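FIELD: query
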Amino acid sequence: MIINLSHGSGGMKTSQLIDTVFMKHFRNEYTTMQDSAVLPFEGSRLAFTTDSFVVDPLFFPGGDIGRLAVCGTVNDLLTTGGKPLYLSASFILEENLDSDILERIVRSMREVAAEAGVLIVAGDTKVIEGSGGLYITTAGVGVAGTVNLSGVAPGDAILVSGTLGDHHACISSMRMGIRNNIRSDAAPLTEMVSELCNSGVPVHGLRDVTRGGLATIINEVASLAGLRAELDESALPVSEEVRGLCRILGLDPLYMGNEGKMMVIVPGDFSAEALTILDKTLYGKNAAVVGRVVVGSGVVLNTEIGGQRRLPALSGEGLPRIC
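FIELD: result
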């Protein structure tokens, strides 16, 4: 197998690479295909995750590579329903990078870490040949919650915490020189998850909607649960500007990545309460109930014209280097 850009899309090729290479040698009782590993520690449970950020361009409306790095790591830890605490950040700097650019990014990381309620406590720096690029690798640790997707059951409701495809559309617009008002949604979802998990609503699943989009994430959940997910096209929250860009470029918001949205699965009877909680948080104003879990397999979209179509996980390249 020769590695190509599609292996970094977050879709089926990424899963194939992980399964046939990394999990082949790293698999143990704690390795996971979910966003964070949950580890025992002296009678407690820790959530642990790591991520790398190679986004191009480094700065974009709504954020930068530094904000993205903190938000992505914090949100992965939050998928356990727990509390992120500490991050590390390692920097690979290319020659010719202006230190003012680096400081601007580091300052951004400090600010969003404060908003998320975490501390950046360790790091490393390497310099390589190049033309001014920058890459960040983070790791994060926190107190694990009890959410692990094993409780997903028929009758559960599927919610998303806001509009789909914003970050992907923002990066696409920047690279193609398209002028619009689309901003990245990069945001730490600490308040949202804390409010939801402390509310008494039984949360059966949390997933960070990033590479591969909602369609890929819900396929992973349906496969893990051995159940079928049904999404309603008319219920999907997508901003008018992102819809317009999708029409122009032939994109599908279901396969476009976000960096500040959470997919939430709760029992159907609790969907209205969960939606109200999300709507009251800073980053949950456009939350919506978008589907349900039923007996069966795979993922189906109920279309606006009354039909159904299968929704597979992302296959192919997608947009490289969006995070």
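FIELD: remark
The chain has two domains: 32-143, 156-310.
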